[in-house]
Write a structure and sequence with these properties.
The complex is a heterodimer of chains A (about 300) and B (about 290). With about 300 residues, chain A is mostly helical. Chain A is built from 11 helices and 3 strands. In chain A, helix 3 packs antiparallel against helix 5 and helix 7 packs parallel to helix 9. Chain A starts with 14 loop residues before the first helix and ends with a helix. Classes of the chains: A mainly alpha (about 300), B alpha/beta (about 290). At the A-B interface, helix 1 and helix 3 of A face helix 2, strand 6, helix 3, helix 4 and helix 5 of B.
Chain lengths: ~300, ~290
């Protein structure tokens, strides 16, 4: 065989872009991602909610693309590390591999955007009934922000969390354990537990309204305090922070600059979380009773 | 022969344990064999050369790039070396082709067509050309080892560092690998750590014996063999006064060093004899080699 190929062959396109494209295609073909997309499609087609339109469906992409995405990405990190270990050393650094993997989150995010487009359309085509939400001084802007925060940004956040888990908890089962922990804590912080309703917005997934109930009407719809608009920005900063934290795992390249960026993002996240908590509507109850109360 | 890598005062410690004592070496084009017992520091030396870990002291240069210097220099060095670690866990669900293709991307092969050609080339080199589409989980141990060797040869590197490459290979595959490595060594430096002295005898221009983290021999294969000249005997009876002695398949007893039995006949030493003699004399407290 010919050995005329140069020792260091780098094409015209950058190696990082090539790797990113490779990771994007691999994510796109991942069975768990495809299952997640199929489940969302089934929900959209068959899971019509006549009372609250698409507003409560946001949990579907958050689960099927977010939680599944956590597992997909953690697996991709493991595979990338395994390939690197098989070669002992490769030219692209761990940090570059991390950035390439992070770029693959564009795949579920795009699917999330498609869901968002459907959810907005459905919200207008089949508006929610009056006893649900929105109501009072809460309008379409609040709805769009909530749909985007809870239905789209977690399709980005889940895989990025998987990146962090894959980098910092490189043991088998870490992704599943993290997913279970995430779900349990999300149940706690979704607004059911009244003492944490105010600070719940610091948790990366929470509801901004729903049938939380009041005395005499256990399914009465409430809008919870907090601004979903600021929450969107808060989540975007958390995603950026996740990528930086994952990249910080690489000890082979200087980390001081990246650590400063991480520190800055933490400060911005705290500010945005506080703004989410302190602005937006106060907790309010739909003046219309739920059908359960009328029975 | 061109120098492809140099070590100057390179040492490695793991906590309080010295894995490699301060070492100076120049590696040239050709095949260099690295012999030594388990724990001698062979894999450490290979990992240092492959930039898989930094040395505790000293400088390492690969193809003119100081790997102990800047990140840019280390990256440049990595562009010019191929490395086969001792133990390799392969992604079992990938196909052989996909695995190499992914690694080629990590080695900066950006152009898809050129990358695929290179993957096919190295698969052919290790005689896995027809198995590229097969899942790694379906490959035999020897085939997986050859797949790992293939990744080390990708890009025709200036320095090829192989840690026990013949483990798991059958005699035919070993012979084929020798041919492959000797061809590669026409333009590259090939450093292979091995316990197979016959591979060293058949393949290496130069041999380095490492023991206790220090180089205890550095020379050509004939020079190594010459260290055992006049100290290898074959007889009918076991020789308890030899440094090392064992009964061969023919029933004769081969003895190295020590005092020969009167009826024993002096024979030409082999690389293994010289290595065992060196081991027995540098570590007399360990007794005869089993």
């Amino acid at each position: 065989m010919s050995q005329s190929i140069p020792a260091s062959y780098a094409g015209e396109r950058s190696a990082l872009a090539t790797l990113a494209r490779h990771e994007i295609v691999a994510y796109l073909k991942h069975p768990l991602f495809l299952v997640g997309v199929a489940l969302i499609a089934v929900t959209v087609v068959f899971g019509d909610d006549e009372s609250s339109s698409s507003l409560y469906h946001v949990i579907v992409p958050a689960t099927c693309l977010g939680i599944f995405g956590l597992m997909v990405m953690a697996g991709r990190v493991r595979r990338s590390d395994q390939a690197q270990a098989a070669a002992g050393t490769v030219v692209l650094s761990e940090r570059e591999r991390t950035y390439a993997l992070a770029s693959a989150a564009i795949v579920p995010f795009t699917a999330g955007l498609v869901f968002f487009a459907w959810a907005v359309w459905d919200y207008h085509a089949q508006p929610p009934l009056d006893y649900t939400m929105p109501f009072g001084d809460v309008g379409d802007g609040w709805v769009y922000a909530m749909l985007f925060a809870l239905g789209v940004l977690h399709t980005l956040g889940g895989p990025i969390l998987g990146l962090v888990v894959g980098r910092w908890l490189p043991f088998r089962g870490a992704a599943i354990l993290s997913s279970v922990g995430l779900i349990l804590l999300t149940i706690f912080f979704q607004g059911i537990v009244e003492p944490v309703r105010t600070i719940r917005v610091f948790w990366p997934w929470t509801y901004f309204g729903g049938p939380y109930g009041i005395d005499g009407d256990p399914e009465r719809w409430l809008i919870l305090s907090g601004s979903p608009q600021w929450y969107c920005l808060y989540l975007v900063v958390l995603c950026a922070l996740g990528v930086v934290v994952a990249a910080l795992h690489d000890r082979e390249v200087p980390r001081a600059g990246l650590a400063r960026v991480a520190g800055g993002l933490v400060v911005v996240a705290v500010v945005l979380g506080t703004l989410t908590m302190l602005t937006g509507p106060e907790e309010q109850t739909n003046p219309l009773p739920s059908p359960a109360a009328e029975k | 022969m061109t120098i492809v890598a140099s070590l100057r005062g390179v040492s490695k410690k793991y906590g309080g344990t010295i894995a490699l004592r301060p070492t100076d070496l120049d590696l040239r084009t050709g095949v260099t064999g690295l012999l030594g017992p388990n724990g001698a520091g062979k894999s450490t030396l290979l990992r240092l050369l492959a930039t898989a870990q930094p040395p505790s002291s000293g400088t390492i240069s690969v193809a003119g790039n100081d790997v102990t210097g800047s990140v840019a220099d280390r990256t440049e060095a990595r562009r010019r070396l191929g490395y086969l670690p001792q133990e390799v866990g392969l992604p079992r669900r990938s196909t052989a082709f996909d695995f190499l293709d992914y690694l080629a991307v990590l080695k900066e092969w950006s152009d898809t067509r050129a990358r695929h050609q290179e993957v096919l080339r190295v698969l052919d080199l290790v005689e896995l050309g027809s198995l590229g589409g097969k899942r790694i989980s379906a490959l035999s141990g020897g085939q997986r080892r050859r797949l790992s060797i293939a990744q080390a040869l990708m890009g025709d590197p200036r320095l090829v560092v192989l840690d026990e490459p013949t483990t798991g290979l059958d005699p035919e595959q070993r012979a084929s690998l020798r041919g492959l490595l000797s061809e590669q060594a026409r333009t590259s430096g090939v450093l292979l750590a091995t316990h197979q002295t016959e591979d060293v005898a058949a393949l290496c221009d130069r041999v380095i014996v490492l023991d206790g983290g220090a180089v205890c021999f550095d020379g050509t294969v004939p020079e190594l063999v010459a260290t055992a000249a006049g100290q290898v005997w074959v007889g009918d009876e076991a020789n308890e006064r030899a440094l090392s002695s064992w009964r061969t398949g023919s029933g004769a007893v081969r003895s190295i060093g020590g005092t020969p039995r009167p009826d024993a006949q002096l024979v030409e030493p082999a690389v293994e004899d010289a290595y065992l003699l060196m081991r027995a004399t540098t570590r007399p407290h360990e007794g005869a080699v089993p």
